[in-house]
UniProtKB/TrEMBL annotation:
Residues 8-112 form the HTH arsR-type domain. This is Winged helix-turn-helix transcriptional regulator. The keyword RNA-binding does not apply. One of its GO terms (molecular function) is DNA-binding transcription factor activity. It comes from the Bacteria. InterPro entries: ArsR-like_HTH, HTH_ArsR_DNA-bd_dom, HTH_MetalResp_TranReg, WH-like_DNA-bd_sf, WH_DNA-bd_sf. Keywords: DNA-binding, Transcription, Transcription regulation. The keyword Lipid biosynthesis does not apply.
Length: 138
Protein backbone atom coordinates (compact mmCIF):
# COMPACT_ATOMS: atom_id res chain seq x y z
CA UNK A 1 0.00 0.00 0.00
CA UNK A 2 1.30 3.45 -0.90
CA UNK A 3 1.89 6.43 1.30
CA UNK A 4 -0.96 8.83 2.02
CA UNK A 5 -1.04 12.57 1.59
CA UNK A 6 -0.94 12.90 5.37
CA UNK A 7 2.58 11.42 5.41
CA UNK A 8 3.95 13.94 2.92
CA UNK A 9 2.21 17.24 3.57
CA UNK A 10 1.50 19.46 6.53
CA UNK A 11 -2.00 19.74 7.96
CA UNK A 12 -2.14 23.39 6.88
CA UNK A 13 -1.36 22.47 3.27
CA UNK A 14 -3.95 19.67 3.26
CA UNK A 15 -6.61 21.96 4.78
CA UNK A 16 -5.86 24.69 2.23
CA UNK A 17 -6.16 22.17 -0.61
CA UNK A 18 -9.52 21.03 0.82
CA UNK A 19 -10.75 24.65 0.82
CA UNK A 20 -9.71 25.09 -2.80
CA UNK A 21 -11.29 21.78 -3.84
CA UNK A 22 -14.54 22.82 -2.21
CA UNK A 23 -14.59 26.05 -4.21
CA UNK A 24 -13.64 24.29 -7.46
CA UNK A 25 -17.18 23.43 -8.55
CA UNK A 26 -19.55 25.94 -10.18
CA UNK A 27 -22.53 24.96 -8.01
CA UNK A 28 -20.55 25.32 -4.78
CA UNK A 29 -19.00 28.59 -5.92
CA UNK A 30 -22.42 29.97 -6.83
CA UNK A 31 -23.82 28.80 -3.46
CA UNK A 32 -20.98 30.64 -1.71
CA UNK A 33 -21.80 33.80 -3.64
CA UNK A 34 -25.49 33.50 -2.74
CA UNK A 35 -24.67 32.96 0.93
CA UNK A 36 -22.11 35.78 1.01
CA UNK A 37 -24.32 38.27 -0.84
CA UNK A 38 -27.11 38.06 1.71
CA UNK A 39 -25.97 39.86 4.82
CA UNK A 40 -29.32 40.76 6.39
CA UNK A 41 -30.97 37.37 6.72
CA UNK A 42 -30.13 33.74 7.22
CA UNK A 43 -29.90 31.68 4.04
CA UNK A 44 -31.64 28.32 3.85
CA UNK A 45 -31.26 25.57 1.29
CA UNK A 46 -34.60 26.67 -0.20
CA UNK A 47 -33.19 30.15 -0.83
CA UNK A 48 -30.17 28.65 -2.56
CA UNK A 49 -32.30 26.19 -4.56
CA UNK A 50 -34.26 29.12 -6.05
CA UNK A 51 -31.11 30.20 -7.88
CA UNK A 52 -29.32 26.89 -8.40
CA UNK A 53 -31.49 24.49 -10.36
CA UNK A 54 -30.32 21.21 -8.84
CA UNK A 55 -32.23 18.63 -6.87
CA UNK A 56 -32.33 19.27 -3.14
CA UNK A 57 -30.30 16.12 -2.47
CA UNK A 58 -27.54 17.19 -4.89
CA UNK A 59 -27.52 20.69 -3.46
CA UNK A 60 -27.32 19.24 0.07
CA UNK A 61 -24.22 17.26 -0.91
CA UNK A 62 -22.57 20.43 -2.25
CA UNK A 63 -23.46 22.41 0.88
CA UNK A 64 -22.17 19.60 3.08
CA UNK A 65 -18.84 19.71 1.26
CA UNK A 66 -18.67 23.48 1.79
CA UNK A 67 -19.43 22.95 5.48
CA UNK A 68 -16.94 20.07 5.89
CA UNK A 69 -14.18 22.14 4.29
CA UNK A 70 -14.88 24.99 6.71
CA UNK A 71 -16.00 27.53 4.12
CA UNK A 72 -19.50 27.86 5.55
CA UNK A 73 -20.92 27.66 9.04
CA UNK A 74 -24.34 26.27 9.81
CA UNK A 75 -26.89 26.72 12.56
CA UNK A 76 -30.30 25.25 13.21
CA UNK A 77 -32.98 27.83 13.91
CA UNK A 78 -36.67 27.68 14.70
CA UNK A 79 -38.51 29.31 11.83
CA UNK A 80 -42.32 29.48 11.92
CA UNK A 81 -42.56 26.57 14.37
CA UNK A 82 -40.24 24.30 12.37
CA UNK A 83 -36.49 23.86 12.50
CA UNK A 84 -34.30 24.61 9.52
CA UNK A 85 -30.59 24.79 8.83
CA UNK A 86 -29.15 28.17 7.84
CA UNK A 87 -25.80 29.00 6.27
CA UNK A 88 -23.21 31.74 6.74
CA UNK A 89 -19.79 32.21 5.14
CA UNK A 90 -16.88 31.47 7.46
CA UNK A 91 -14.69 34.57 7.28
CA UNK A 92 -11.73 32.83 8.92
CA UNK A 93 -11.49 30.30 6.07
CA UNK A 94 -11.51 33.04 3.46
CA UNK A 95 -8.94 35.07 5.37
CA UNK A 96 -6.69 32.01 5.29
CA UNK A 97 -7.16 31.68 1.51
CA UNK A 98 -6.51 35.39 0.98
CA UNK A 99 -3.30 35.22 3.00
CA UNK A 100 -2.08 32.29 0.90
CA UNK A 101 -2.97 34.05 -2.36
CA UNK A 102 -1.31 37.28 -1.23
CA UNK A 103 1.82 35.31 -0.36
CA UNK A 104 1.83 33.75 -3.84
CA UNK A 105 1.26 37.09 -5.54
CA UNK A 106 4.25 38.56 -3.73
CA UNK A 107 6.44 35.71 -5.00
CA UNK A 108 5.27 35.60 -8.61
CA UNK A 109 7.30 37.37 -11.23
CA UNK A 110 6.13 36.65 -14.78
CA UNK A 111 8.46 37.17 -17.71
CA UNK A 112 7.33 38.44 -21.09
CA UNK A 113 8.01 35.29 -23.02
CA UNK A 114 6.27 33.51 -25.91
CA UNK A 115 6.09 30.32 -23.85
CA UNK A 116 3.57 32.02 -21.55
CA UNK A 117 1.19 33.08 -24.31
CA UNK A 118 -1.39 30.36 -23.62
CA UNK A 119 -1.54 31.38 -19.97
CA UNK A 120 -1.92 35.03 -20.97
CA UNK A 121 -4.94 34.08 -23.08
CA UNK A 122 -6.55 32.40 -20.07
CA UNK A 123 -5.71 35.37 -17.83
CA UNK A 124 -7.09 37.87 -20.34
CA UNK A 125 -10.51 36.18 -20.05
CA UNK A 126 -10.43 36.52 -16.27
CA UNK A 127 -9.18 40.10 -16.44
CA UNK A 128 -12.38 41.23 -18.16
CA UNK A 129 -14.52 39.97 -15.27
CA UNK A 130 -15.41 42.78 -12.90
CA UNK A 131 -18.68 41.56 -11.46
CA UNK A 132 -18.24 37.99 -10.21
CA UNK A 133 -21.96 37.54 -9.60
CA UNK A 134 -22.52 38.12 -13.30
CA UNK A 135 -20.33 35.10 -14.12
CA UNK A 136 -22.67 32.74 -12.31
CA UNK A 137 -26.01 34.05 -13.46
CA UNK A 138 -28.03 31.53 -15.42
Amino acid sequence: MGATKYEFYSDELINTADLLKAIAHPARLKALLIIANETDKDITIKDIAKEIKLSQSTLSVHLKQLHNSGLVKTAVINNESKCCKVFRVNKIAFTHLMNMLEHLLKKIELKNDDRYESFYHFYSKLKSVHNWNQCFES
